[in-house]
Fold these 2 entries.
Entry 1:
Amino acid sequence: MPLDITLYGIQMPTLLPIFIIVAILQIAIDGIITDTGIYRHVWHPGLFKMALFVCFFTLACLTIYH
Amino acid sequence: MSLSKTAPFGTLLIFSLKNAPKEWLLKDAPTLIYMAKATLAALLALMISMMLTLPDPRTAIFTTFIVMQPQSGLVFSKSYYRVLGTIAGVVVSFLMVGAFAQEPMWFIFFFAIWIGITTAAGVKYRNFQSYGFVLAGYTLCIVALPVIEQPMEIFNIATSRFSEVMVGILCATVVSEIFFPRKLSDSLLTSERERFESVLASLVDENSLFGAQDMKDAEVVKFSSGVVGVHAVAVNSAFESAIDKRNRLYLEQLNIEFMHLSTTFHSLKNIVGNIELHTSNETVDNLKKLYAPFAKVLQNVSNLDEEGFHSMINQLKELKEIIHSRFTEQQNSLEAHFGSDEYDAFRSAGYLITRILDEFFIYANSYLAFYRLKSSGKATKELSRVVRFKTHTDNLLVTLAALRGSGVLLITMAFWILSGWKYGTLTITMAVVIGLLIGTLPRPLDAVINFLKGAVSAAFVAALYDFYIVPEFATDAYTLSLVVTPVFAFVGWMTTKPKWAGFSLGFVFLFMSQTSFDLYYKIDPTTFLETTIASLLGVSFAGAAYMLVNFWSCSLSQKRVAKVLRGQIVFLCNAPLNFQRGSLESMGRDMIQQFSTQGQLNIRSNRLVYEWLLATLEIGGAIIRVRKNLNRLNGEFKMINQSLEGIKQYFQAPTEALRQSLLESLKNAIKSLHVEHKQEANIVAELPLIRTILLSRVSIPMPKEGSCR
């Protein structure tokens, strides 16, 4: 994938839409994890969430920088 | 000799040495951690904005300080509304600049309307929602005003402001969530436990009910602010994912049940106080006898674990039967003995005692269920439908705030246009910001003065940084971060002190706008002086507006409160039958809270208004219950309907004649019930309560002469 994309005439870094999509995904996953009560067994829920987000985001970014 | 003297000293020393670390952990450590977190977030925001070459890193740093809160749930909540507010402000800026950049009159007109709307909404809404509106108004100033001469620039400014705000928010949320996170949900169990223990303590202590009436003013204020505060916590905790929906529902339920219990408790206390003044000791003695077994059961509760709770609840269950039947016995035996006023007073106080028992039983049950949920994760009690927490804001207060906001804008605009000063926009921005932001704080005028003090001190600190420290020591982003760290830490420390709220706000505002946080150093003394003067002028304009639009006096507040409370009683006479007592109580408390912070009620009238509120809640609750019972019984109750009509008439336009006739008709209604429908104990309990409250003239919501002095 290219480093920059043009969405309906506006040029932007591809990272931006990826960030937004991953953030939405993260909110959905976070909701599921909360409902199943997994956070009760996690030592540091905040760090866990953050790490999860970083994993997803970097995975998606690998497709650009591959 | 010397040994006996040193021994207590030694134990004292050991005691204090033992307790010092504990105290430090409880009190100082959280402050230090918060300071470190705020500083870290601000430095992170500075570094990231510099790396991304955003044009104005100070907006990002400023944002971190604004949204940073001790608990992460509060940070998320505030950030969420900050984003929403910024988006709304940016969109309106586009519209305004797009449509009216060439038309000063229209531009100013719509500008004033927008500021008026956002100020009004900021006062009308609660919690951080109000902050969202404040931001929506303020963003228009910082986006649209600087580009008014070059309208084509607006898109750049808007995107960069938005990115800076986002960077600031991300830094604040990540730091507060990852480093030593403090959750709202963690503090919930502790604070609920503390509340339960204090309820227990005041119920056990018979003197708190039957003793002398020396209620402290703090207690009066706490009566409403406690419930409103816990509700705010429950609302904000929605932003923490670790706290699930069930927890929050329990919390709201407990809050409502506590609210009912505390209303009953304080009403009983009031009525007992009146009885002690006006009747014989015998009445009070009988009430004490009725209450004693309840206090005894509570006294035996030693440890508040699950088992202790269980046995307490079982005992209370049995006790409920006993006290109810004892009350009936007492009523029958005392009927011939007492005069009608005294008998009514006894009946209403006794009824309140049985109600306290019932309500405490419900509250303790919910607390036990919440405790179990927290300790084992299992829900044991089905929650009933949660009552919606209602708020009430006086429309006159809102209108005044809107007028003040728009007025300040128009005057500063005029100042800018007439003077033709390049930095006039800064004056406008500062004045509008203060009009919006401080209007939502308690005691606005004091807050503005503190804001000014903070701003002036910040100007000196900023000058020191701009002309000595930054040019001397800062060569790149890292050294700049290093040299500003002490100030960030100081600001972080200040924001933990509620007393310094206005001062720290002013300090942050001016320090951020005047210090050189730019990509390259571009400060010169003339610009610095001019912009500082422009900002301080803005503060003075806003302060003058707060001083001028201040005809909101104590007696006016009292009049408004009394009118609303009376209106509630009239409304309840015709309200739909499914109207809940919780809605009435939460609305009443929220309104009093609002008036005592914004409407300038002094301490003495706080006390008075508190009595009005209690009377209204009791009469209102009694009306609902009587009407529900009448509906259920389906019979002809002419006397009672007449009394209800009398209540409505009296509270629509209270006069002494109406009061007398109402008291008479209530007396007749009580008698009629007593003779014909003795089995309808429910109504028999409510009507004497209304009558007893009406007998004491102080508690009827009507402004009294001299209560404002």
Entry 2:
Amino acid sequence: MARMTMREAISKALWEEMERDENVFIMGEEVGVWGGTYAVTKGFYDRFGEKRVRDTPIAEAAIIGGAIGAALTGLRPIAELMTINFAFVAMDHIVNEAAKLHYMFAGQFKLPMVIRAVSGGGRQLGATHSQTPDAVFAHFPGLKVVSPGTPEDAKGLLKSAIRSDDPVLFIENATLYQAKGEVPEDEDYLEPLGKSKVQREGDDVTIVAYSKMVPSALEAADMLAEDGIEAQVVDLRSLRPLDMGPVIDSFKRTNRAVIAEEGWRSYGVGSEVSARIYELAFDYVDAPVKRVAQAEVPLPYNAHLEQLALPQTEDIYHAAKEVVYG
Amino acid sequence: MEKSDYLDLYREMVVIRRLEERAAELYQKGKIGGFLHLYIGQEAVCAGIGSVRQPQDRIITAYRDHGWAISSGIDPKVVMAELLGKVDGCSKGKGGSMHMADVDKNFWGGHAIVGAHIPIAAGMALGDVYQGNDDAVTICMFGDGATNIGFFHEGLNLSKVWDLPVLWVCENNQYGMGTSVDRASAVSEIRQKAEGYGMPNERIEGMNVIQVREDATRVLDRIRKEGGPYLLEVLTYRYRGHSMGDPERYREKEEVKHWEESDPIGIFHKYLRDEGIATEAELEATFKEAEKIVEDAVDFAENSPDPEDEALFDHIYAEPTPVEYKGYRLERESEGR
């Protein structure tokens, strides 16, 4: 194990997979000479050259469409979208092409590709650059949507995504890049796609989270522990396929749940997970399931207003207290 | 070209025409669902380019794809079965008219969103360059209507910036659905759009299959030799209504004359006869063979079974992945071949 930031863990996963497989290459805006807008691919251009670290025009349909085409020929492209907000420009290629070609042509087409995209607010970038629309992409069968909450998972999940024969949208939260954790150094360290993971044990309340909300949920759990409430934190890690197993196992013991996500509440991850809890474990429900999410506004620029809109650790803490009637 | 090659080409064009005519009838009867875009009138383009492309050249086209499927080597039976949504179709009944493909024939679809396959074509050419398949050219077709959408411009620009071996083929049939080129495009000649990307280009006539063959051969050779993309604007017409390919059906001399001057099959028919390559009787016999092939295809398709219910969950993902049905996890998994 080595202690590193999530940025370093992601960079390490990319580097190792590039070293391991000649067919893996990176394409996107400023990934090469610049070293990546978030410095994730710093040093890659010098090591792997312009053939495998390809700077593209600012043209997201060409980036994702081009990656799809390259994947069809057997390569393993990693297409980087500078932010997930630009995915809307490439929406057709993500949902109409990447998510459907394998099915529509009865398995003839394979798309072993990864789309990396930075999601999340809190950096005063204004409404168009601060969204967390992860759930939108999780709506489409055919796509796999993954979003890690810890550096360890970031490495293991990204490596699995790169080795996967399916198109994977790998969502990174920019405010987590500095988050630190212990990361296995094994070059074949893989975390399975589509599996939730218990990040903290507890018997009193289940907190379901993913990505940015995982560290927040763990913080909230520490606060709750001081009040004598033990929270179990389940990290979804993958929004599609969605693994409800650990959530339901936990809920059947705690009978209470809070679901935390950074995106908007309506039609969101919390909506989906809570609906499934009611479908799968109705007899175990002791309190209404609570959702913690972003206020339903386009995120404002002003730092105070922006934080007011974003879900905070305290929101998770208070929601948990409410469901345990604490 | 040997005599048999000429007759093969003639037969192929008639097969495409007849298959479309029969498809139109089956559509009217409700046996084909969804949308049906017929290729009638444009046969010289797919037959011409299809007959000179090399096996390593990838073919990718838009939703008007039946002709390209056949010219790429897919059996008309399999094309017809796909039109009827049957399990023996090239996409096992899951794609339909607009989504035909056969990877083994290097035919990559069949794409229904206007222009969306254009960046994908650039990516396939990148794949070939990356893997050192130096002789391969990606041949990408689209209609005139697709040249007004952003995908076209992003794709063309990328192909030029990265110097990718793509033959961009605009099948200009003068109309994007119901809107004529001059009402939708700022320039009347589609080829002019390639100028904005510093890309070599030309406009050719697309009704004479021999001419299309020669032009396509020349341009493909150039791409193979010099690399980089090239845009070919092919003038053609799609016409339903004036759709009969069968010379026997024309009674009046004037009708025959019109057919021989304006219909790609009529033009080729006249060429083969006038050049002494084939006799009227031989052409007649070839025509009959084509009709038989299409009738056999219809029989085959009608007798092919529907996909099993289980097929609903096949190929959602290539890797074993849990599948759900109406909100509940099933015991089985989705897995490709």
